[in-house]
Structure formats: structure tokens, C-alpha cells
């Protein structure tokens, strides 16, 4: 049952590429597809830079509001409903676990030569996940003391993810350039 789904995802070998070139697409169209792949992966190699830029902007906004007590303006009955904010020690544990998990997952993708970029929803969710720790520390009224911790952990993960994406894109571009050279 999975064979028909997995089969199309497998990379084509050199022999199957030659069959495709000779039988269906023609050399010119195949070259154009290779050039499009190169252009796509060239743009992909810069996606992590956008993530770092957005994270720096979000961090700058968090830095401006680091001393704001989010619960000070709430009425007592709302504070009773919401409950007490989590202690900073608990947020430290969650930040450490999520950072280590992200690092391990990214290194695993690099080792498998898997496309680490995914799609834009994965990009935005990763950025939001890194940034939400500013809100967690702000609710605990501990953002001022822990701002640098959140920023450093977020940048480490984002730089590593960018490196993994860049490395995958560069490897793919090199392979495609070799295929393009073989067609000439």
C-alpha cells in the first residue's frame, strides 16, 4: 500500500534520468528543470537568515517591554481565574529541553541529508516557538533577568537550523550542476 506513495519520492538514478531525457522531456526542458531547481535551492539557502532577522526584531520588542508586569493591570478576580504564573525555574527546564530537542533534531536531519527547510508553516511555527519564551518569562515577571538566556538559546537553534538548510541547499545545487554539466 505504501509502495505507490514511497516510490515517487525516491530520487531518480542516473539511468532513469537518461530515460526521462530521451523519452519524454528532451534535453532542453531537462536543463530548464535543473536550472529551476538550482534557483529554488539558492533561495532556500537564505531562508534561515529571514528567521534570524525576525527573531532579532521580536527580541528587540521583548527587550523594550522586559520590565512590564503583565499581571499588574489585571483585576484580582481575573488573576484568580488565570492562576499564578509559572515559576522561572520551570520555564528554564522547558527552555532547556526544547533547545536541546531542537538541536538534536536538526543534527539528525543534517546527518540524514534530509530537507530541513520544510515549508513556510514549519518556518513560522519554529520562529513562534523560540519567541514564545519571551512571553513565558514576561508572565512570570522574570524577563528582565532572563532575556539574554532566551535570546541566546533562540539564536543557537536558528543559526544551527540555518546552517543545516544552507548545507542541504549547497549540496543539492552542486549535484544539480553536475547533472547540468553531464547534459552538455
Report on this model:
This protein is mostly helical and 184 residues long. It has one domain (28-183). Helices cover 79% and strands 0% of the residues. It contains eight helices and no strands. It has helices spanning 3-6, 14-25, 27-44, 47-64, 76-82, 88-112, 120-139, 143-183. The model is unreliable at 1-17 (pLDDT under 50).
Helix content percent band = over 70%
- The figure for the number of domains is 1
What is the averaged pLDDT score? Answer: 81
What's the helix count?
A: 8
Q: How does the major sheet shape up?
A: none
Question: What sequence of helices (H) and strands (E) makes up the elements?
Answer: HHHHHHHH
Rg: 23 Å
- Count of β-strands: 0
What proportion strand?
under 5%
The outline comes out as elongated
Q: State the low-pLDDT regions, or none.
A: 1-17
Ends: how far apart?
A: 40 Å
Structural class: mainly alpha
Amino acid at each position: 500500500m505504501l509502495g505507490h506513495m514511497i516510490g515517487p519520492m525516491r530520487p531518480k538514478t542516473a539511468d532513469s534520468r537518461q530515460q526521462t531525457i530521451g523519452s519524454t522531456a528532451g534535453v532542453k526542458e531537462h536543463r530548464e528543470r535543473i536550472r529551476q531547481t538550482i534557483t529554488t535551492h539558492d533561495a532556500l539557502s537564505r531562508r534561515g537568515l529571514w528567521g534570524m532577522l525576525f527573531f532579532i526584531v521580536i527580541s528587540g520588542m521583548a527587550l523594550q517591554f522586559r520590565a512590564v508586569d503583565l499581571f499588574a493591570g489585571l483585576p484580582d478576580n481575573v488573576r484568580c481565574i488565570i492562576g499564578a504564573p509559572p515559576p522561572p525555574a520551570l520555564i528554564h527546564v522547558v527552555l532547556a529541553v526544547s533547545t536541546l530537542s531542537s538541536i538534536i533534531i536538526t543534527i539528525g536531519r543534517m546527518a540524514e541529508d534530509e530537507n530541513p527547510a520544510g515549508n513556510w508553516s514549519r518556518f513560522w511555527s519554529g520562529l513562534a516557538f523560540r519567541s514564545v519564551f519571551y512571553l513565558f518569562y514576561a508572565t512570570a515577571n522574570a524577563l528582565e533577568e532572563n532575556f539574554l538566556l532566551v535570546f541566546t538559546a533562540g539564536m543557537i537553534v536558528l543559526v544551527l537550523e540555518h546552517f543545516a538548510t544552507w548545507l542541504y541547499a549547497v549540496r543539492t545545487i552542486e549535484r544539480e550542476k553536475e547533472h547540468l554539466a553531464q547534459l552538455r
